[in-house]
């Protein structure tokens, strides 16, 4: 692999172009390193308990102003943010690569997702439709009104360090809500860059309230303070199922609202009639793309027994062509894992496959000169014995568990027989199979695709999943409703007072 040189120098230049001052980057003790070569990138100060408290108080004040700004005007701020993102797409994408190890194409794709959600939200700012509902009473009008909710706490993960923030922020802003963001402690620099771009947009906007969008840097303690504070009516949290298990009850205990986007265990079913070339390419992209570190990554593939061997051969050949290396290299398809804990988890999972009688192809560590502290691996195919139940845990690494199946009902049952329910896909040219898979008795996930893979969802659809994935929906469709307060309002314009349900109450 070719190493493209010191990441900290690359980082300084990139941050400089993004307008983030280098001065504040060494004032603290939260050490940020690049997964590309393990070099230290920054030492950031952590937000203290007092800082978090002040940020929440500031957000409450900003809310009082922002909720009174007409939604299309709020959309103007998001339009300006979209422009900033367009102007800085290359640099922000590169920063994602430097801090998170995604290949440049995927860093750019992530920023494109941000631009797309801004466009979506700008359009939404002239909609935010409520229903008119037929009233059962004469001379009455019943209507649903949507009002701003209040400060939104966003907790995000390292793997989509900027897009997840933008899904939440673009919607929250047009809905009239301030945002307080706690990015992953593994990717705080991309957060500082987003904050800078947002501030540029605010400067162009003119009269946005101060502290409309804020960033807090730190670990779990910071997130937990946000989660437990009753002044933050909505917590939108992306991360592991274990994290969601702590966040959900804490927010519920104070009757707050949460949008949870947690682990996935996504499967592709390849049916006998499938276009095998499409199926193999989609499976490989889903499983090895982003080094298997997407919540939508393909973790399992169920191959019909009639095409099992052909598909395994094609996958093995595709895996052999995958270039692992410095994600800044245009030839690279798989960059590093985020850290050594990830590498350990991957090795443990592969040992478990071998212990269970499975065969592992790949999954070897790739040593790179000058990058001894980085964790590069070849993606792994885990060929599983037919007798085994499907793996239940999500390992955030490029491992694809390969199973054979006999009937579609069996494949659907096995796809569903895991705690998570984010994304599933079928490759088939048989319309009956496709329809069954997406039907009420088909895959039980929030995202179910036909002839495309499990990852790479467009922003226009609602994003999220069922069961241990947390049930939340972000991004497109009507996910905006999660960021607003619904009011049912009935107006009586008659001179009578008829009661609902026909009740007579003569007083
Ligand atoms: C995530 O991994 O947290 O559908 C989000 C996808 C991307 C988003 C992934 N649009 O793969």
What does this structure look like?
With 507 residues, this protein is α/β, with parallel strands linked by helices. It folds into 2 domains: 7-262 and 477-488, Aldehyde Dehydrogenase, Chain A, domain 1 (3-Layer(aba) Sandwich); 266-462, 3-Layer(aba) Sandwich (Aldehyde Dehydrogenase, Chain A, domain 2). 38% of the residues lie in helices and 19% in strands. It has helices at 7-18, 49-66, 71-87, 89-100, 104-124, 163-175, 188-205, 220-227, 241-253, 276-288, 308-321, 340-355, 408-416, 431-438, and strands at 30-33, 40-44, 132-133, 140-148, 152-155, 179-182, 213-215, 234-238, 257-261, 266-270, 298-304, 359-362, 365-366, 376-377, 380-383, 399-405, 420-421, 423-427, 447-450, 462-463, 466-467, 474-475, 484-492. Helix 3 (71-87) packs antiparallel against helix 6 and helix 3 packs across helix 7 (188-205). The longest helix has 21 residues, at 104-124. The termini are far apart. The structure holds 2-aminohexanedioic acid (UN1). 2-aminohexanedioic acid is lined by residues 113, 159-160, 164, 238, 294-296, 455-457.
Brief sketch in words of this structure:
With 507 residues, this protein is α/β, with parallel strands linked by helices.
Label this structure with key terms.
single chain; 507 residues; alpha/beta; Aldehyde Dehydrogenase, Chain A, domain 1; Aldehyde Dehydrogenase, Chain A, domain 2; 2 domains; seven-stranded mixed beta sheet; five-stranded parallel beta sheet; 23 strands; 38% helix; globular; binds 2-aminohexanedioic acid; Ald_DH_CS_GLU; Ald_DH_N; EC 1.2.1.3; NAD; Ald_DH/histidinol_DH
């Amino acid at each position: 692999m070719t190493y493209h040189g010191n990441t900290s120098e690359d980082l300084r230049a990139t941050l400089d172009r993004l307008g983030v001052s280098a001065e504040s980057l060494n004032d603290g003790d939260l050490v940020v390193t690049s997964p590309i070569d393990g070099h230290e990138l920054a030492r950031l100060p952590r937000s203290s308990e007092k800082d978090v408290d002040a940020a929440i108080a500031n957000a409450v004040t900003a809310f009082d102003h922002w909720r009174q700004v007409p939604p299309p005007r709020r959309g103007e701020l998001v339009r300006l943010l979209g422009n900033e993102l367009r102007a800085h797409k290359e640099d922000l994408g590169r920063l994602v690569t430097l801090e998170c190890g995604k290949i440049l194409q995927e860093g750019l794709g992530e920023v494109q997702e941000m631009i797309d959600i801004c466009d979506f939200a700008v359009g939404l700012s002239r909609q935010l439709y409520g229903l008119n509902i037929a009233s059962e009473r004469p001379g009455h009008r019943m209507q649903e009104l949507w009002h701003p909710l209040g400060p939104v706490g966003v907790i995000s993960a390292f793997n989509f360090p900027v897009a997840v923030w933008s899904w939440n922020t673009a919607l929250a802003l047009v809905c009239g809500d301030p945002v307080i963001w706690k990015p992953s402690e593994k990717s705080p620099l991309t957060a500082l860059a987003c904050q800078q771009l947002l501030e540029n947009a605010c400067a162009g906007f003119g009269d946005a309230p101060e502290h409309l969008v804020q960033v807090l840097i730190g670990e779990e303690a910071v997130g937990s303070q946000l989660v437990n504070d009753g002044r933050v009516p909505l917590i939108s949290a992306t991360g592991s199922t274990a994290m969601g298990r702590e966040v959900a009850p804490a927010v519920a205990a104070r009757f707050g609202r949460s949008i949870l986007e947690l682990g996935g265990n996504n499967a592709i079913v390849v049916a006998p009639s499938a276009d095998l070339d499409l199926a193999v390419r989609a499976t490989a992209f889903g499983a090895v793309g982003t080094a298997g570190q997407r919540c939508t990554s393909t973790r399992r593939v169920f191959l019909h027994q009639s095409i099992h061997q052909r598909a395994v051969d094609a996958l093995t050949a595709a895996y052999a062509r995958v270039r692992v290396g410095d994600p800044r290299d245009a030839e690279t398809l798989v960059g590093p894992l985020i850290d050594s804990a990830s590498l350990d988890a991957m090795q443990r999972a592969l040992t478990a496959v071998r212990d269970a009688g499975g065969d592992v192809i790949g999954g070897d560590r790739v040593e790179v000169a000058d990058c001894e502290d980085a964790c590069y691996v070849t993606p792994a195919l885990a060929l599983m014995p037919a007798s085994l139940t499907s793996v239940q845990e999500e390992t955030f690494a490029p491992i694809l568990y390969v199973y054979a199946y006999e009937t579609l009902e069996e494949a659907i049952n096995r796809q569903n027989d895991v705690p998570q329910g984010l994304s599933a896909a079928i490759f088939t040219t048989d319309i009956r199979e496709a329809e069954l898979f997406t039907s009420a008795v088909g895959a039980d996930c929030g995202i179910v695709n036909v002839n495309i893979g499990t990852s790479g969802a467009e922003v226009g659809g609602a994003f999220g999943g069922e069961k241990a994935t947390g049930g939340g929906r972000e991004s497109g469709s009507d996910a905006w409703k999660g960021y607003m307060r619904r009011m049912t309002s009935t107006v009586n314009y008659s001179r009578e007072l008829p009661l609902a349900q026909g009740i007579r109450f003569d007083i």
